[in-house]
Write a structure and sequence with these properties.
Blueprint lengths: L50 E9 L3 E8 L5 E8 H6 L3 H13 L8 E6 L3 E6 L7 H8 L4 H20 L2 E2 L8 E3 L5 E3 L6 E2 L27 H4 L6 H17 L9 H10 L10 H10 L16 H5 L20 H31 L47 E2 L70
């Protein structure tokens, strides 16, 4: 094509967060252009002070999830706040990096979306989709056993989300009802990618050979695949094992390998010891039996048996139109009734909280000797330190000082005006100061009760019930590009 006689400046290339991030070649590239108001992506950038912070949604071993509202757009998000000191002290840098990199690859309505990452002197922040209706676990606990319509609906959404995850070269490795959130319309959103692994196109772990990174021992005991217990590579088939466990749990109300201790759970998994309830639907029984197979190469959903299409073609999904957009359809009646009940409980809790606030104000004025202490300060934004800011598409140089986490880029991972962003901002959140990080919880801490508004999104955390006895050291020496 002949060049035009009129000279025009080329448009800047878009930021592609699905590609591997290259290391900068010199320290001069460590200053981001996003601080420049003339940069085309400047208005997409966010910092700590761009949000109004509401109540805590849940707490994990090294993170807290907080409801927040974007001051620029009034949209509501869930902000995951991670304690940098705790991350470094407990050698969790690897999992923080994995979660960010995995989420940056995802763009699906059934998966929690990562919009921005930023930091202050003490914490890292992930801005994520807000899922106001809690976890699938809570729905199962209150309404199970599900009818076939509800089970098929959520099984189909979970299958499509897992298909997208696998297509992006990722194995989740911690699929369970606690990590499946429910948005405002009771559709699922998979969260918590801290245990994820990256694969090559042929369903093999990225590098590492026989000691590849997919052998690390992570996950949650009741949903761990048998190949992981045998110290074999963990590939896509591990997620289909967990998928079978979730289908079983929706139709029975409990996980198939429930036991008093992790050791007993592992013994049941290795020996394939589980029982179906008498009323378990036969077609669903056949699906679960084909998914809960000890040999991954013989498991439904595995590459040897036709991949995900083999699950879609099973009689369990007979009559289901896979061409329709299930995430735009109305959720089943059982789920909608649960949502209405949950909203009523939240409303009652808000009334109690308002009464408590009035009582506190009435009996303790600002000058009263028994007045409560002043709230914690808002996190300090370090936007003034532009000399250490990282470009949106590049990490800091490996020679970065301290622990490497101080260089987390203020990165717009997904623009807020994307077509597939869920609109979960129908209600206004109370504005208050950002709560401080709670002490780490002990392993095995049970899920918070549904009656508490603090339980709404605990699934968005790397909860301490995970098994993170990771024996893999292939990434241990990596300097995090944060």
């Amino acid at each position: 094509m002949a060049s035009s006689s009129t000279h025009t400046s080329p448009l800047p290339p878009p930021i592609n967060t699905t590609l591997p991030i290259k290391q900068p070649t010199s320290s001069s590239t460590a200053v981001t252009d996003l601080d420049d108001p003339n940069h085309p992506l400047h208005h997409h950038r966010r910092t700590v002070n761009d949000f109004e912070y509401g109540h805590a949604l849940g707490e994990g071993s090294y993170s807290t999830v907080i409801a927040a509202k974007d001051k620029k757009t009034d949209k509501q998000y869930a902000i995951k706040k991670l304690d940098k000191a705790h991350i470094v002290k407990n050698d969790k840098v690897k999992y923080v990096m994995i979660e960010r990199d995995a989420l940056s690859r995802m763009n699906h309505l059934g998966i929690v979306k990562l919009y921005w990452t930023f930091r202050d002197n003490r914490s890292l922040y992930y801005v994520l989709d807000l899922a106001p209706n809690g976890e699938l676990y809570s729905l199962i606990r209150r309404k199970a056993p599900f009818d076939m319509e509800t089970t098929r609906f959520y099984a189909a959404e979970l299958l499509l989300a897992l298909e997208h995850i696998h297509d992006k070269g990722v194995v989740h490795r911690d699929i369970k009802p606690e990590n499946i959130l429910l948005d405002d319309n009771m559709h699922i959103k998979i969260t918590d990618f801290g245990s994820a692994k990256f694969l090559e196109q042929d369903n093999k772990p990225v590098a590492g050979g026989t000691t590849g990174s997919s052998r690390s021992f992570v996950g949650t005991a009741e949903y761990v695949s048998p190949e992981l217990l045998r110290s074999e590579p963990t590939l896509k088939e591990a997620d289909w094992w967990a998928f079978g466990c979730v289908v079983f749990q929706m139709l029975s109300g409990k996980s198939p390998f429930k036991a008093a201790t992790d050791y007993l759970i592992f013994q049941k998994i290795k020996n394939l010891e589980y029982e179906f309830p008498d009323a378990f639907p036969p077609v669903a029984k056949d699906l679960v039996q084909r998914l809960l197979v000890l040999a991954p190469e013989k498991r439904l959903g595995g590459e040897a048996l036709g991949g995900v299409d083999a699950i879609k073609n099973h009689a369990f999904f007979q009559g289901f139109d896979w061409q329709q957009d299930i995430f735009k359809q109305t959720a089943p009646e059982l789920a909608l009734q649960y949502r209405d009940d949950l909203k009523w409980q939240q409303h009652q809790q808000e009334k109690l909280d308002e009464a408590d606030d009035f009582e506190t104000w009435f009996h303790a004025g600002d000058d009263h000797p028994d007045a409560p202490p002043q709230p914690n300060e808002q996190p300090q934004d370090d936007t003034a330190s532009s000399s250490t800011r990282v470009p949106a598409s590049q990490p800091v140089h490996p020679s970065a000082p301290v622990d490497g986490l101080d260089q987390l880029s203020d990165t717009p991972h997904h623009h807020e005006d994307a077509d597939d962003v869920s609109s979960s901002s129908s209600t206004s959140l109370p504005t208050q100061t950002l709560p401080t990080l709670a002490p780490p919880k002990e392993a095995g801490t049970p899920t918070l009760p549904i009656s508490s508004t603090l339980a709404l999104a605990s699934g968005q955390l790397g909860m301490s019930s995970h098994i993170h006895n990771d024996t893999d050291t292939s990434l241990a020496s990596h300097q995090p590009p944060w």
